[in-house]
Amino acid sequence: MERKLLFYLLFASFVSAYLSITVFQGFLTLAFAVWLFILLKERRFETFRGRLTVPLLGHLAVLDLSSALFLRVSEQWRRLVEQNFFTLSYFFPKVLDPEGVLKLLRWTLAAAPLLGLLLSAKVWVSFLVYGEIKAFWGGKFVIGNLLALPFFASLYFALTGEGLWRKVLFSGGAALFLWTAFLPFERSVVLGFLAGLLLFGAAAFSLLKDRRARAALLAGGLLLAAAGTAAALQNPKVEYWIKLVESRGLNAETLNALSSQRVVIAEGALELVERALEEGDYLKLLIGWGYGPQKQYENLPPPLNRIINEYESFLPITEFVNGGLLGLLFVVWFYLAAARLTRETFKRRDELFLLKVSVLSAAWVNLVYHLFTLFWVPLNALFFVLLAAVEVLNQRGREKT
Question: 17-31, 82-96, 235-249 — which is least confidently predicted?
Answer without folding.
Answer: 235-249
